[in-house]
């Protein structure tokens, strides 16, 4: 029996017995090369507890009784032992996000022989710490990630290359009093269930007065034909946004003395929310991305995707409180904390920004705004020849609803290079002030030279696909379990090309290894484990496959992943032949679906939880 995202399944093993044996022998040999360091033992308990969310006291699954759980402080070179005990009535797990470790210890049910943690049982995770930096942990079972999570700080063997006086963790989250399984059911029943920002008739008349009636009509019809809503940026609204478990009213506080340098470890541990953090009156100098050191980059703001981490250094020059302010991407709310010289101080709140609305620029269609569509039959848009069209320039459109459209003479532009006056991608950064310096991936440069800077020998395209109306998400049009895994040889250098064909940004995460982000750097490409792929855009990464095992590759928006936006990335052990690796039948977790999501919940072993 295998536990897959909270459910039991009596399917075939993940990989053949011979492949398992080769994998275990290889891992044992690698571990044997490391001298044991001092051991750290940590105890985590997954249990139900009453917590306060937005003024409501509700029961939630927690780690050690809190949301989030305790911050784990580890050290590079130590052998960590973490005992996780499950005191709930459903299977659970803990995944160590961004940590390099043996596949069995990754904590992903249905992968590498890990079967999850049954109710009333414990599992001991043991692994050698091979890195330093800012990471986090969370459940990888069902929708438990909504409340079962916590931060990890790993101190380096050698002194940090950056000077700072105080070190703080800012773990961002989105908390809901609803049962997380109910949230998914609501989205399956109506994808816009939580979209409280839908455009109204008043918005239409304002747009018509500004842009003209014909253009306003064309805009509505085009979005309608694509079955998309330009105000739907986050799927779920109504969250209470938190910093280290505290709501804005609770005022999480970090003390400093004027002139001190503070290291802020910003972790987006939310389930569904991209944030735009800033500290009015202070520059933030980015010194690490996803736990890996980068050349210092001073910025005013950062767009941080779910599961991304950025370490920044700030140096308050005045003896006054400063507000750490992280608005959600759709501007429906914010998380807040205060940098203060004394307890009880509250920083001034900056003005709230207007809601964000997607444009055709965001959909990879920068020239559509100037296209005369007055004679187009928007009622159908079918019967037009699209056979010769390069879909890579129109990522984000639901091509199934526009099949046959002849657009061969249309200048679609290059969505990857369409930028505003500050060099930022158009549309995607429309919610920022014109004079703000916002972190862009192109600004990141690894502090140290890459171990491998060779050219990849193979390109692997991963299309981010889905049907928003039915709330079905997929990779390459295949839900998790319906597609063969991505398989690479040990030592093979490959390029992963993430092509977003949807209207939403997707933070894509690969377990078990870092990849090098292709952002214009040569020998100092930044290392990351999660990258945001904006709507209608393409992001590419390269990696040398040296971490043996079967690893999840998925969108880190929780309900997208659970709805099917995940696949298996298998790194074969040295000496393995193609015939010795079979598709990962043990990790078929989300199929088949029904429209309400009820059968999926039954398959995942959930009786419903908070």
Explain this structure to me?
The protein is mainly beta and 610 residues long. The chain is 10% helix and 30% strand. It has 6 helices and 31 strands. The protein has helices at residues 17-32, 180-189, 201-211, 213-225, 558-562, 598-603; strands at 2-4, 7-9, 39-53, 56-63, 72-75, 79-86, 95-97, 122-128, 133-138, 149-155, 166-175, 240-243, 252-255, 262-268, 275-278, 284-289, 292-299, 309-314, 322-328, 334-340, 458-467, 472-475, 486-488, 493-500, 506-510, 515-517, 527-528, 530-533, 538-544, 549-555, 566-571. Strands 12-11-14-18-16-17 form a 6-stranded mixed sheet, with no helix packed on it. It has a 6-stranded mixed sheet with strand order 22-21-24-29-26-27, with no helix packed on it. β21 (458-467) and β22 (472-475) form a beta hairpin. α3 (201-211) crosses α4. The longest helix has 16 residues, at 17-32. The model is unreliable at 1-39, 366-418 and 581-610 (pLDDT under 50).
Topology:
Elements: E1 2-4, E2 7-9, H1 17-32, E3 39-53, E4 56-63, E5 72-75, E6 79-86, E7 95-97, E8 122-128, E9 133-138, E10 149-155, E11 166-175, H2 180-189, H3 201-211, H4 213-225, E12 240-243, E13 252-255, E14 262-268, E15 275-278, E16 284-289, E17 292-299, E18 309-314, E19 322-328, E20 334-340, E21 458-467, E22 472-475, E23 486-488, E24 493-500, E25 506-510, E26 515-517, E27 527-528, E28 530-533, E29 538-544, E30 549-555, H5 558-562, E31 566-571, H6 598-603
Parallel strand pairs: 3-6, 5-10, 11-14, 13-20, 21-24, 23-31
Antiparallel strand pairs: 1-2, 3-4, 6-8, 7-9, 9-10, 11-12, 14-18, 15-19, 16-17, 16-18, 19-20, 21-22, 24-29, 25-28, 25-30, 26-27, 26-29, 30-31
Helix pairs in contact: 3-4
């Amino acid at each position: 029996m295998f536990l897959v995202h909270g459910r039991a399944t009596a399917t075939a093993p993940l990989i053949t017995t011979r492949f398992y044996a080769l994998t275990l022998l290889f891992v044992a040999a690698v571990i044997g090369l490391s001298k044991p360091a001092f051991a750290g033992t940590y105890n985590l308990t997954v249990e139900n507890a009453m917590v306060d969310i937005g003024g409501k006291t509700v029961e939630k699954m927690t780690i050690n009784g809190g949301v989030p759980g305790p911050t784990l402080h580890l050290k590079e070179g130590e052998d960590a032992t973490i005992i996780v005990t499950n005191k709930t009535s459903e299977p659970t797990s803990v995944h160590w996000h961004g940590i390099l470790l043996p596949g069995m210890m990754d904590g992903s049910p249905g992968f590498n022989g890990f079967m999850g943690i049954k109710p009333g049982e414990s599992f001991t995770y043991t692994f050698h710490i091979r890195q330093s930096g800012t990471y986090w942990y969370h459940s990888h079972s069902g929708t438990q990630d909504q409340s079962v999570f916590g931060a990890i700080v790993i101190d380096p063997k050698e002194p940090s290359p950056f000077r700072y006086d105080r070190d703080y963790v800012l773990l961002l989250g989105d908390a809901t009093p609803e049962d997380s399984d109910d949230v998914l059911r609501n989205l399956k029943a109506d994808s816009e269930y939580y979209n409280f920002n839908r455009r109204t008739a008043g918005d239409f008349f304002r747009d018509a007065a500004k842009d003209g009636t014909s253009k306003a009509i064309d805009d509505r019809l085009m979005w309608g034909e694509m079955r998309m809503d330009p105000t739907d940026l986050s799927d779920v609204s109504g969250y209470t946004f938190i910093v280290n478990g505290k709501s804005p009213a609770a005022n999480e506080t970090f003390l400093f003395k004027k002139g001190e340098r503070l290291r802020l470890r910003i972790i987006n541990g939310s389930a569904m929310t991209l944030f735009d953090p800033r500290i009015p009156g202070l520059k933030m100098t980015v010194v690490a991305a996803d736990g890996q050191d980068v050349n210092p980059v001073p910025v005013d703001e950062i767009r941080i995707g779910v599961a991304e981490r950025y370490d920044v250094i700030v140096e308050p020059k005045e003896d006054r409180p400063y507000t750490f302010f992280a608005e959600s991407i759709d501007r429906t709310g914010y998380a807040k904390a205060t940098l203060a010289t004394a307890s009880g101080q509250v920083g001034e709140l900056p003005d709230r920004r207007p809601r964000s609305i997607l444009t055709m620029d965001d959909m990879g269609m920068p020239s559509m705004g100037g296209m005369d569509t007055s004679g187009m039959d928007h009622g159908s848009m079918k019967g037009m020849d699209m056979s010769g069209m390069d879909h890579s320039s129109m990522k984000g459109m639901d091509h199934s609803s526009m099949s046959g459209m002849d657009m061969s003479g249309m200048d679609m532009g290059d969505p990857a290079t369409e930028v505003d006056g500050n060099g930022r991608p158009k549309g995607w950064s429309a919610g920022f002030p014109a004079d703000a310096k916002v972190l862009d991936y192109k600004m990141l440069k690894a502090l140290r030279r890459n171990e491998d800077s060779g050219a990849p020998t193979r390109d692997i395209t991963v299309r981010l696909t889905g049907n928003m109306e039915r709330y079905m998400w997929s990779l390459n049009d295949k839900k998790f379990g319906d597609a063969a895994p991505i398989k690479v040889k040990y030592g093979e250098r490959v390029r992963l090309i993430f092509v977003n064909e949807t209207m939403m940004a997707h933070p894509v995460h690969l377990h078990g290894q870092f990849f090098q982000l292709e952002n214009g750097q040569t020998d100092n490409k930044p290392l990351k484990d999660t990258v945001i792929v904006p709507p209608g855009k393409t992001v590419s990464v390269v990696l040398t496959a040296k971490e043996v095992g079967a690893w999840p590759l998925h969108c880190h928006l929780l309900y997208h992943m659970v709805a099917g936006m995940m696949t298996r990335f298998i790194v074969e052990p040295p000496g393995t032949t193609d015939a010795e690796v079979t598709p990962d039948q043990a990790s078929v977790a989300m199929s088949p679906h029904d429209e309400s999501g009820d059968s999926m919940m039954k398959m995942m072993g959930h009786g419903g939880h908070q």
